[in-house]
Design goal:
With 163 residues, the chain is an alpha+beta fold. 17% of the residues lie in helices and 32% in strands.
Amino acid sequence: MRIAGVQAGRGFGKQPVRGPVRVGAENVEGDKQMDRRYHGGPDKAVLAYSADHYPLWRAELSWPDLPFGGFAENLSVEGVTEDTACVGDVWRAGTAVLQISSPRFPCIKIPRFWRRPALLERVVETGRTGWYMRVLEPGVLQEGDEIALLERGAVTVRCASES
């Protein structure tokens, strides 16, 4: 697994972060969650999304320049999807230690932001939703960092989202 992109910003419009960035107990430095009832906080400090989904989205949506961060994620991660990531997995990325805390349940902001009304329904249908992570040890990470799996959870993100 590897970090293919790091994004931060206000609300849904995340921008690429170049170079090292600090990850704290409640978010990625420079990131701001707008609705704290559903986003952010200790159990949803980081939103991760599979970078492996982007070629599929770009082809399905005829959208070749869909950027990482397109689904409001902080980390675009290669080599892992909802079918292989497990709730409870513990990762070391850079000097940070993160744990998958829950599946992400996408909201209406995805189609509104991109002005693509059917996008939310398609995200849900495909199960390409992403997952939230808590920060067990704050640290610094960046695009290109390898991710080490330190502990394995028991239930995949996809199975957890279906229950």
